Amino acid sequence: MLLHGFGACHDVWRDVVAVLAPLARTLAYDLPGHGLSLDFPGAGPAKIAARAVLADPAVRAARRIHLVGHSMGGAVATLMALIEPAKVASLTLLAPGGFGPEINGPLLRRYAAASHLPEILACLEAMSGPGSPPALGTAHMLHEMRDRPGQLEKLVEIAGAMTRDDRQGVIPRDQLDTLSMPAMAVWGSDDPVLPSTQADDLPPHFHVHHVLSAGHMLIEEAPDLVARIIQRNINRRARPVRPKLAEAG
Length: 249
Fold this sequence. Notes:
Shape: globular
Structural class: alpha/beta
CATH topology of the domain at 2-101 and 168-234: Rossmann fold
Helix content: 25-40%
Order of helices and strands: EHEHHEHEHHHHHEEHH
Distance between the termini: 46 Å
């Protein structure tokens, strides 16, 4: 299951899906407030998105799911794993939101308000690593999405709430330590949106992969590498859950 980041849509995963599709069934969602899910009630907070995806009949019918989330989608995926850990077989997080208070609020608000193709492309380039090729295909896709009535206004609303005081909400580290499924955090070394240092003090069972010279847009910058990392994490074993010792009375 693939969950995109803020301001994107399910189509951003197409290059990753092309690699994964022969190996596994893939589901890519438009998160509430984005694309085909624009009118979802209360869209905006990651917790609402997490419960919305968990309530989807396709998710309910699946015995277990491998969750992959980018940026805001990473925060949503993490919350889903915390809400229903038995449902999640693995957790692969690409520069996830909610892992530290630092966030580039001005850049995200600029990205939210970008309505013309050159503006969108300029924001994508600003969020990518040095030397990354322009994400022309993604820019065209996002331009088409933002042409839908109400989409731009919704993105501006979400960005304002998400970056209030240029800080973001943080998922407590002690909650992350309760997760037993294979967990991987992937970060571009030159991420200008969410600093890679947010992966420094993750629980020991989280594997961390730094992508050198990459920025925040990992799906566009390194789709083949992202697909290989997802495959590797899917094949890892869950850590054993240690039984709690009863205290002597």
